[in-house]
């Protein structure tokens, strides 16, 4: 328990100090999006990595959050903070409602159903032109502000987004190491046994699905206020696949793994700009290679690799 | 304690169980035996709500629980172990037992995420109780091992500890001795008696006749989905129909 607190504290410190050596360069801007993606990846990891329930429709909740906040603030002049809360709660309520029928499905069927939700949401963003601006996007979204302090630079946005991310990381760490989190992991390992142990699997799956949607919606709100302009392409199927790739690469069922995956996959396209439209192929390849050779992601795979390279220690560890 | 009333189960055109009725007496150890394919595991799955019976009713302490899902039955004190051990393989041994304490605690998603003070207290109690249960079954030293790496015999003990965490009134064990060697089986027999001595009713499906004859107060014999006989171990040993079912006719 002590080392967990220490780890989180060290992580907070790293987040706090990271932008300093970058001194306002373009990388700070990238790190803002690493923050947004970290929140999204975390939301998906709670659902998929811990509870074992796949979702290929995370971009829908992300988009609903972004468009909800965007429309309410730019068209209806809502206070952005109020809009963020209202929208997140509304998206959570929506997820809760569709959660009961959708999460009765398992495996491929669940993937297809959530994929459907994602596709429908994306069509809605494109077609409701009067509200969302359709394919040409929605502009004029205000920055977030506290009093007269406006989050209008990369550095300010960095601390805004990562402030949210850190709170969510802390809450997620609490959650997974608790009665609720154990219930989720039990459902993942054996749903039948979990239910026989009195775990209300159906309800808990819907709860974590709702939580995951709530988290994604918050990320969406933050994203729209950071960007001040949004368009449907940011909330399509590709985004859902990217998120999936993040947690598979970073660490399936690991809170910090979500962050690592978000960091790597947000930086990667920046470095490999040449891939452009073929990025989905790279993601596909990464998914295949990782699931075959490092099913636990980098956070579990790399230490395991070290243990394999020092076989004696590994055996002692197993007997301990 | 547990009444099975005219239980029948058909899978498509196959009748797996037909008209099974018996009573598991409070505080007893009841053995359910029968040749392979007799329908023993199916009967267990119906009793614990894994799937519904085609006809008949399951009563726990006089209350009809036929329509309750497994988690609902667990809350009423009806708990089972599995023939092939269903552990939560990626969780530690201690965490497995802590999941078993799910019905004995109530912290929800918000309390857990925000670490409410009473949730922390509950968490501490869960952990301490789980450790006690590991001691009860004799594997306290394995608390931090990943459950999926346990040898079969230890896994069986863990599964029993996890089931005991629910403070069951009735513990159903599906072939608890399967895959155990003779010294492990002797330990198991001792453990089951200790569980009975805590006032918990035990019903088990088992192939190991020495174990069954040693620990059971009452036996039910199934054959091809029907009840063949019911009685004390001694009566069953002398029952001609049972001998025929097991050894074939001369």
TrEMBL record, chain B:
Residue ranges constituting the ABC transporter domain according to the UniProt record: 2-249
Domain of life: Bacteria
Keyword terms: ATP-binding, Nucleotide-binding, Transport
Gene Ontology terms, MF aspect: ATP binding; ATP hydrolysis activity; L-isoleucine transmembrane transporter activity; L-phenylalanine transmembrane transporter activity; L-valine transmembrane transporter activity
SMART domains: AAA
InterPro entries named among the record's database cross-references: AAA+_ATPase, ABC_AA/LPS_Transport, ABC_transporter-like_ATP-bd, BCA_ABC_TP_C, P-loop_NTPase
Short name of any one Pfam family annotated for the protein: BCA_ABC_TP_C
An example Gene Ontology CC term for this record: plasma membrane
One biological process term in Gene Ontology: L-valine import across plasma membrane
Cross-referenced PANTHER family: AMINO ACID ABC TRANSPORTER ATP-BINDING PROTEIN (PTHR45772:SF7), CONSERVED COMPONENT OF ABC TRANSPORTER FOR NATURAL AMINO ACIDS-RELATED (PTHR45772)
Protein name: Branched-chain amino acid ABC transporter, ATP-binding protein
